[in-house]
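Deliverable D5.2: sample structural annotation.
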Amino acid sequence: MSLRGLIALTFMLIAPLPVMAEVLCARDALERDICLREPAARVVSLSPGATELLFSAGAGDSVVAVSAWSDYPPQAAELPQVGDSNRLDLEAIVGLSPDLVVAWTDGNSRAQLDRLADLGVPVFWLAPREFEDIARAVETLGGLTGHTPVAERAAAEFREGISTLQATYRDAAPVRVFYQVWDQPLMTINGDELISKAIALCGGTNVFADLPRLVPRISVETVLAADPEVIVTAGRGDSDRDWLASWQSYPSVTAVARDNLFLVSPSLLQRPTFRMLEGARELCGILEQARARL
């Protein structure tokens, strides 16, 4: 071997090996580890809640398509839609060549999305059940899309806001609350649903917390027997004040007798996103009004 060749071989042996890109991994709500070789630059969101969380994480510019009803923030409403909770257009999703698909366990079909996963499309499932889950979801999505600093700042602000409400209403007098999700059929939430966690945060007690289903159907008679001190609903907006008016037919219910029938802003409490903080503040104010009337 020539001297030049020996020098070249020596250099190859001592030169540092190329550094492989760090793999980004995160465990989702189905206890599956999702790993990406680089931050996702093309993301498809399959629920309005997931869409909001992605934008909160700083990844809004990476979202290339969303599900129906993804109307917040406003720019999300301008993105292409690839279906809803009943039916997804898998062909359209694959055609977008996403680096990541974000799904919601309470709204998306696992069978459909397993087909996507079988095609090599990473699917990350979300299922926030606590306020902390919301903050962690944003941090995780920020990490998977390369926006960790933005996501961590936003999550810290959310946690601080929740902590402030906890401190403010920790010693508030308890009030018994019926939260009406829907009118016909009559539906409410149990203690595992995040709206119930917001009620508890404000010093309230969900009268149907012990029911087994997350969003159970109930009867009017069941509500009368529970005798809530406050009835709250969001419904579909201001047009659903008639949902509250219908309870006026039952003056023996404490909530009716004390005029504790309240309509809260739609979408603030009904989506497990950072806007729940705003919704919780509104709900806490409502329960304070109710306490003054008891």
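Annotation notes: Residues 142 and 214 are 28 Å apart (CA to CA). The radius of gyration is 24 Å.
The annotation will be released with the project's public dataset once the embargo ends.
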